[in-house]
């Protein structure tokens, strides 16, 4: 992995909102990180930590004011080059269903491919595929107004509109916010299937530590605009005291193991899943029998 160029590289990135005014806010402060091709990279942090500001640099919505960002080989500071980043980097905002605007589901999902200048047959193929990826069928909802669908289905349609671009990088900013556990799981399952089938890099901004534990390859923790820690989920979630000091929690299985360790039980504290926690508890029970 060390010999492979990262898909996203951030060097000493700093971003200040309303600089030189009484409302000045430092949103990012010297952030440096690398994201590799094909991985699912999670960004976590409390509200106001800078997560959304960071990912908006990845498709050129925000240009670096201080520091450098390269995405898919493109220097985001270059105004002419970053204009086409939307073709390579699909950004799904929080509550993306609020961005729907076309009269039919088909037209909404087709909007991006049409703007790429693709032919009618190619647009049709991409719309069909993108809807399939999120668990929807073009024959059933293609001609329906997206505003007649449930909230969860509207969100899937909005995400399909981004997937239809076939991006190299998919950035998801709290994509499952407000969904029930079943809807959240289904949505993320669809995203992971797309990732594996296409070799896409996924950057996930989320408050769900369980989601990070189960799905992420690596995770970065932001706090007040700075990179507080990073590593694999197992490495990061083993630092319970530090995470809680930042206002964050850990997945329930990890939290339980740390409580047991504090009570004097000899258990692993780097567990991530219920199955791993169950194995540790079974060992304790076995020792006591």
Shape descriptor reads: globular
Helix/strand-derived category reads: alpha/beta
Largest sheet: 6 strands, mixed
Q: How are the strands ordered across the major sheet?
A: 6-7-8-3-9-10
Total DSSP helices: 12
Mean pLDDT: 90
End-to-end CA span: 46 Å
- Give the beta-strand count: 10
Q: Helix fraction? A: 25-40%
Low-confidence stretches: none
Order of helices and strands: EEEHEEHEHHHHEHEHEEHHHH
Strand content: 15-25%
Radius of gyration of CA atoms, rounded to a whole number: 21 Å
List keywords for this structure.
289 residues, alpha/beta, six-stranded mixed sheet, four-stranded antiparallel sheet, 21% strand
Describe the protein.
- The chain has 289 residues and is α/β, with parallel strands linked by helices.
- It has a domain at 251-289.
- 39% of the residues lie in helices and 21% in strands.
- It has twelve helices and ten strands.
- The strands form two sheets. A six-stranded mixed sheet has the order 6-7-8-3-9-10.
- A hairpin with a 2-residue loop joins strand 9 (218-223) and strand 10.
- Helix 3 packs across helix 4, helix 3 (105-115) runs parallel beside helix 6 and helix 11 packs parallel to helix 12.
- The longest helix has 18 residues, at 181-198.
- It is globular, with a radius of gyration of 21 Å.
Set down the secondary structure blueprint.
Elements: E1 8-17, E2 25-35, E3 40-44, H1 51-56, E4 66-71, E5 74-75, H2 79-82, E6 89-92, H3 105-115, H4 120-133, H5 138-141, H6 151-163, E7 169-173, H7 181-198, E8 201-205, H8 209-215, E9 218-223, E10 226-231, H9 233-236, H10 240-245, H11 252-262, H12 274-288
Parallel strand pairs: 3-8, 3-9, 6-7, 7-8
Antiparallel strand pairs: 1-2, 1-4, 4-5, 9-10
């Amino acid at each position: 992995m060390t010999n492979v160029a990262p898909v996203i590289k951030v060097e000493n990135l700093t971003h200040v909102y309303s600089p030189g005014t009484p409302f000045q806010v430092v949103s990012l402060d010297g952030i440096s990180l690398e994201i590799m091709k094909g991985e699912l990279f999670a960004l976590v942090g409390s509200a106001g930590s800078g997560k959304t500001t960071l990912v908006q640099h990845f498709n050129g919505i925000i240009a670096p004011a201080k520091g450098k960002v390269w995405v898919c080989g493109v220097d985001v500071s270059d105004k002419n080059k970053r204009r086409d980043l939307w073709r390579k980097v699909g950004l799904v905002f929080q509550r993306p269903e609020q961005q729907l605007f076309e009269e039919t589901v088909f037209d909404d999902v087709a909007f991006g491919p049409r703007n790429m200048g693709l032919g009618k047959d190619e647009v049709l193929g991409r719309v069909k595929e993108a809807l399939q990826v999120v668990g929807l069928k073009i024959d059933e909802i293609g001609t329906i107004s997206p505003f007649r669908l449930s909230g969860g289905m509207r969100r899937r349609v909005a995400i399909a509109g981004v997937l239809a671009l076939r991006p190299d990088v998919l950035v998801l900013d709290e994509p499952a916010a407000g969904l029930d556990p079943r809807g959240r799981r289904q949505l993320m399952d669809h995203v992971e299937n797309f990732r594996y089938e296409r070799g896409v890099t996924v950057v996930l901004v989320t408050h769900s530590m369980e989601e990070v534990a189960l799905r992420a390859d690596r995770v970065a923790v932001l706090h007040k605009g700075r990179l507080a820690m990073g590593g694999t989920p197992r490495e990061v979630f083993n630092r319970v005291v530090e995470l809680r000091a930042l206002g964050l929690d850990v997945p329930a299985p990890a939290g339980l193991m740390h409580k047991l360790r504090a009570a004097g039980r000899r258990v692993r504290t780097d567990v991530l899943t219920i199955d791993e926690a169950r194995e540790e508890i079974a060992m304790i029970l076995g020792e006591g029998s």
